Amino acid sequence: MSAVTVRVPAKVNLQLGVGPLRDDGYHDLVNVFHAVSLFDEVTAEPAGRLEVRVEAALDARVDVGGVPADDDNLAARAARLVAARLGVEPRVALRIRKAIPVAGGMAGGSADAAAALVACARLWDDPGEPALDRDDLVELGAEIGSDVPFAVLGGTAVGVGRGERLTSALTRGTFHWVFATAGFGLSTPAVYAECDRLRELRGEPAPQPSVSEELMTALATGDAKGLGAALTNDLEEAALSLRPSLGRVLDAGRELGAIGALVSGSGPTCAFLAGTEEDADGLARALDGAGVAAQVHRASGPVPGATVV
């Protein structure tokens, strides 16, 4: 096979419940992932050695200057894991075309790793009797990071543990989103540390997180208003503490008609739920005109995970 191209979506966290800090340095999480229609593409083709090239997708307004084009890129690690499992040399050129906002809390790097897993497995595995199936790729993804397994699967899913143990969630209909990106990044470890600090400052024991019944009911019935009311992120307070300007973005989105709003993951992207596709179009235009975000993106979900195109 000469080349394999895989399309992979961004994610938004509909619920991110953060539990106590564990002995291994991670937190117990309840993470309701939702894949949305902002996509990166990764093409894998044979080469003399492992190479990574990163570029912005056509018409995409993303800055890829800070994305590593070497072994620090999670896609490169994914290629090495697949090669090791199949007993081949990781001789592959990975071309990453990005449309998912970079360093925005939408798991773009994890998405690229998931796409590389799928692309390299298709490139190197035996098509007649493949050694790696989707479950194997999910398992390999968990070795890379907590968001990678979901990017392989897509749709809507509940993640527990570090977020990597997934169960698909029943979702009816399509939900319409607007994402407002910031002109700065937020360190995920720093946001978790700030969450711990704020809890300690208040003398609050970290609760054991559990899945929101209201959220799951809204997803199962396709109730956009119910979903908007049930969106929660335990890291949002910490993200706002580190970057208070995000509060103005959230306030603007609500004032302009969003029926739900939250910081996506560890931020700094803010996610807004709209009632209809037309409402989302209007909200996106209004947010863009308000000048509170570096960029504004429209998307819908759920969508499938990493898919060969």
Summary tags:
28% strand; Ribsml_uS5_D2-typ_fold_subgr; Ribosomal Protein S5, domain 2; 309 residues; 4-stranded antiparallel sheet; EC 2.7.1.148; single chain; ATP binding; Alpha-Beta Plaits; 2 domains; 4-(cytidine 5'-diphospho)-2-C-methyl-D-erythritol kinase activity; globular; 10 helices; Ribosomal_Su5_D2-typ_SF
Walk me through the structure.
The protein has 309 residues and is an alpha+beta fold. It folds into two domains: 166 residues, Ribosomal Protein S5, domain 2 (2-Layer Sandwich); 127 residues, GHMP kinase, C-terminal domain (Alpha-Beta Plaits), CATH 3.30.70.890. Helix content is 36%, strand content 28%. The protein is globular, with a radius of gyration of 19 Å. It starts with a strand and ends with a strand. The model has no long low-confidence stretch (mean pLDDT 93).
Question: What is this entry, summarized?
Answer:
It catalyses: 4-CDP-2-C-methyl-D-erythritol + ATP = 4-CDP-2-C-methyl-D-erythritol 2-phosphate + ADP + H(+). With 309 residues, the chain is of the alpha+beta class.
Low-confidence stretches at least 5 residues in length (pLDDT < 50)?
none
Predict the CATH topology of the largest domain: Ribosomal Protein S5, domain 2
How many strand segments? Answer: 12
CATH architecture of the largest domain: 2-Layer Sandwich
Topology:
Blueprint: E1 4-21, E2 27-46, E3 51-56, H1 74-86, E4 92-98, H2 108-124, H3 134-144, H4 148-153, E5 156-161, E6 165-168, E7 175-181, H5 188-202, H6 213-221, H7 224-230, E8 232-233, H8 236-242, H9 245-255, E9 260-263, E10 270-274, H10 277-290, E11 295-301, E12 307-308
Parallel strand pairs: 1-8, 3-4
Antiparallel strand pairs: 1-2, 1-12, 2-4, 2-5, 5-6, 7-10, 7-11, 9-10
GO molecular function: 4-(cytidine 5'-diphospho)-2-C-methyl-D-erythritol kinase activity; ATP binding
Domain GHMP kinase N-terminal: 73-155
InterPro entries: GHMP_kinase_C_dom, GHMP_kinase_C_sf, GHMP_kinase_N_dom, IspE, Ribosomal_Su5_D2-typ_SF, Ribsml_uS5_D2-typ_fold_subgr
